[in-house]
Write a structure and sequence with these properties.
Helix content is 29%, strand content 23%. The chain is built from four helices and nine strands, in the order H-E-E-E-E-E-E-E-E-E-H-H-H. It is elongated, with a radius of gyration of 28 Å. The strands form two sheets. Strands 5-6-3-8-9 form a five-stranded antiparallel beta sheet, with no helix packed on it. A four-stranded antiparallel beta sheet has the order 1-2-7-4, with no helix packed on it. Strand 5 and strand 6 form a beta hairpin. By secondary structure, it is of the alpha+beta class. Keywords: Membrane, Transmembrane, Transmembrane helix. This is Reelin domain-containing protein.
């Protein structure tokens, strides 16, 4: 098919907003279309940045021709705008997103600007779509499209961990693993003591408290040094994670 020369406007915008993507070309997103958006490490409030969006993959990826591709980008905060005198990118009237213009649908890379909001203690999400088409003028599954979301952190925003599809990050997995191991060992040790010594739960805790209390109240420099070493390693591990 051909990319829509007028860009993603009007009714096609509503389809994107409904997370339907580009069903006029093919029904489902395809992973062979890879979208890239160049972003600095973080942004400063009020600054304007020149960004580049491009994608690869899909039909005729290495060839040149007419009506080869189109794009859509929207930012959760800040202002997107075409570069002055650039006829490849447009901002539809009354909309906040950018899309390709008639002269820009022969390409698979576009430049534009984004002005950061007045606050840089937030994380901005860029929602993007890339439409890779074969230019034959026919609608069909030969055309491929995909979507991607990019998070852009302000210089004063709290660090976040990007998690795809609800998966845990490696640090989270380590924390949960050590927590489960510690709880399991505690249950096994206390349970074994209750069975072998025929003690109640309270009696077992009292026995262990007899060993723990002197460590918590000691003034012996040797014991205090050991406690410093143990707690130091613990905080070193937590900070590293």
């Amino acid at each position: 098919g051909d990319s829509v020369s007028s860009g993603i406007t009007g009714s096609t915008t509503s389809m994107v907003d409904a997370n339907e993507g580009c069903p006029c070309h093919s029904s489902d997103a395809t992973s062979d279309v890879i979208i890239a958006l160049n972003l600095p490490d973080n942004f400063t409030a009020g600054e304007t940045y020149t960004l580049t969006l491009n994608f690869s993959g899909g039909p005729n990826d290495a060839s040149e021709g007419d009506n080869r591709g189109g794009f859509f980008i929207r930012a959760s905060h800040g202002i997107l705008a075409p570069i002055e005198n650039d006829t490849h990118v447009q901002k539809p009237s009354g909309e906040s997103h950018l899309t390709h213009a008639t002269e820009g649908n022969d390409y698979r890379e576009w430049n534009f600007t984004w002005t950061a909001p007045e606050s840089d203690n937030i994380i901005v999400a860029f929602t993007t779509y890339g439409n890779s088409v074969n230019g034959d003028g026919n609608v069909g599954n030969e055309d491929h499209w995909n979507s991607a979301t990019f998070n852009f952190r302000g210089v004063n925003a709290a660090a976040v961990v990007d998690i795809d599809h609800g998966e845990l990050s490696t640090p989270q997995k380590l924390i949960y693993a050590f927590t489960i191991i510690a709880v399991t060992l505690g249950v096994v040790i206390v349970g074994n003591r209750m069975v072998t010594k025929e003690q109640s739960f309270e009696e077992v805790l009292k026995d262990y408290w007899k060993y723990t209390y002197p460590w918590l109240t000691t003034t012996d420099h040797k014991y205090i040094g050991i406690l410093y070493i143990v707690t130091g390693f613990a905080w070193f591990f937590i900070a590293g994670v």
